[in-house]
Amino acid sequence: MMKNNILVHLALVLLLLSGIIEAQHEPHWWGNRNTIVHLFEWKWTDIARECEEFLAPRGFAGVQVSPVAENVVISGRPWWERYQPISYKLVTRSGNEAEFADMVRRCNVVGVRIYVDVLLNHMSGSHEGTVQGTGGSVANPNTKDFPAVPYGEIDFHPSCEIYDWNDRFQIQNCELVSLKDLDQSSEWVRERLVEFLDHLIQLGVAGFRVDAAKHMPAEDLKIIYDRVRDLNIAHGFPRNARPFIYQEVIDHGHETVDKYEYSPLGAVTEFRFSEEIGGAFRGYNQLKWLRNWGPEWSFLPSEHAFVFVDNHDNQRDGGNVLTYKNAKQYKMATAFALAYPYGITRVMSSFDFQDRDQAPPADENEQILSPQFDADGACVNGWVCEHRWRQIYNMVGFKNAVRGTEVSNWWDNDDNQIAFCRGNRGFIAFNGNGWDLKERLHTCLPAGVYCDVISGALVNGKCTSKTVVVDEWGYADIDLRADEFDGVLALHVNAKL
């Protein structure tokens, strides 16, 4: 009897833990919204305004913001200085704590959630002598002295270099590009990290992107995640809601430390998604093979996968990854990512860069510039703002319109022309060939006239560009020429004239 009671108790504990774990895969979106945008290096005041004036009206679900903790000031102000914290004060080039709190509140009010890029693995890298932070703190990274936390040498792993990426010990105990590696098994370190995350939750954030998660043992992260408080009901979250967690784990396949170790704790960045979708739309793989996109490509299960065409790191690394610099193919890949029901999707919003280390747009005093917009709403002063490209934000609307439906009626020409339905709510076609796509295809849509939301938009009941007539049986003549500005045509029920 005693043994049976113990087994029942263990089962209940496991069930409870399972509930906590599964809850941390929930992004807490409003309504049918389901796309996050990374406003990379934007100021808090600008994000607040963007939530109210652009993101909410166009159905974006959330914003990933750059790291919020005080970082070391580095000559030339490269973007990666934000990934070298020296304290947990909320003062960066994006703004101070009051501005951050105001941004979170204003974005929550209009239903746009905020997810913070957090640095739990490390503090600043090596620098000569005492360094100054963006909030006025000082530190000596070489001696692992960070008095504003405070952290001292005892709170870090002994210094060593990662030179063997097949060695688990080195990956999780040595220093990633000289960044001082915190010891997450230390109770003092855990308490400081939980305090930091709790403070952000109290201010109303919905969750976290955990940078360099691969470099911390999953068992240590689980302890930290489980201790973090529930989301703040004062910001519209339900009681007992757990923060959404997505973890940066770079896994190209056959890794010693792999993505599956972290997926029970929260979502995981699926970097192979970027590589494979980039290869397909660059023409290295036929689009017809995208029919079974997802786990059959050795990706994570959909509910565990956090996906993107590019991110702030890999857009600077070359290879197969598409970026704003390959505009037509980039828009096609992004449209596919938003149209095909796989993973939790984030779109990138960049600044223009000519070299890997380049700082975000700034004035002569190294203060980050606010984005400026032309008459069409596109950014013009060094910011790229892919999320403001019509072809991308209209696909966010498509994704919202078809939420909850599956792929059906897949068609391809046995090469690089493909099309499919999303239930009876959406239809999309792609032309990756050097010749025109002219086919009569089943759109699955109710009869009527639809506006193509790629070549134009439905504005005040009128379509600004191409329209498509769907007959009573759901068929339509699809015409997508090889020389068109975009290689996509997309229709959905909310774009019916």
Automatic annotation (TrEMBL):
Required co-factors: chloride; Ca(2+)
Class of this enzyme: hydrolase
Catalysis performed (reactions): Endohydrolysis of (1->4)-alpha-D-glucosidic linkages in polysaccharides containing three or more (1->4)-alpha-linked D-glucose units
Alpha-amylase C-terminal domain ranges (all copies): 408-496
Domain Glycosyl hydrolase family 13 catalytic: 34-399
UniProt keyword Signal, yes or no: yes
EC number: 3.2.1.1
Stretch forming the signal peptide: 1-23
Alphabetical UniProt keywords: Calcium, Carbohydrate metabolism, Chloride, Disulfide bond, Glycosidase, Hydrolase, Metal-binding, Signal
GO cellular component: extracellular region
One GO process term, biological-process aspect: carbohydrate metabolic process
Example of a GO MF term: alpha-amylase activity
Quaternary organization: Monomer.
Similarity section: Belongs to the glycosyl hydrolase 13 family.
Protein name per Swiss-Prot or TrEMBL: Alpha-amylase
